[in-house]
Design goal:
Helix Hairpins; 90 residues; mainly alpha; elongated
Length: 90
């Protein structure tokens, strides 16, 4: 096993633990803001994992997927913020 393989396995385990924690917060989060934040964290973890995979394998084939995930994260965060702002004003 090369050093890069070991680092990749360690990173995958850390990303997996973070993803499991985010999914558990999405499932049992008491408020919608907790669930929204956990969803943003899950998207960030998946983007970081995808970027790490691209760096380890030295390719840019999945760059479009990375950009689409970033777009969903931004649009989702803005939509939830606007929804909560309208809800608080009422």
């Amino acid at each position: 096993m090369t050093f890069l393989t070991v680092v990749g396995i360690i990173a995958a385990v850390m990303f997996g633990i973070g993803a499991i924690a985010a999914v558990s917060r999405i499932i049992r989060g008491p408020t919608i803001l907790d669930r929204a934040l956990a969803t943003d964290v899950l998207l960030a973890i998946s983007m970081c994992a995808l970027g790490a995979e691209m760096a380890i394998n030295k390719h840019t084939d999945t760059l479009v997927v990375l950009l689409v995930l970033a777009m969903f994260a931004i649009v989702g965060s803005i939509a939830i913020a606007r929804f909560m702002a309208k809800q608080d004003a009422s």
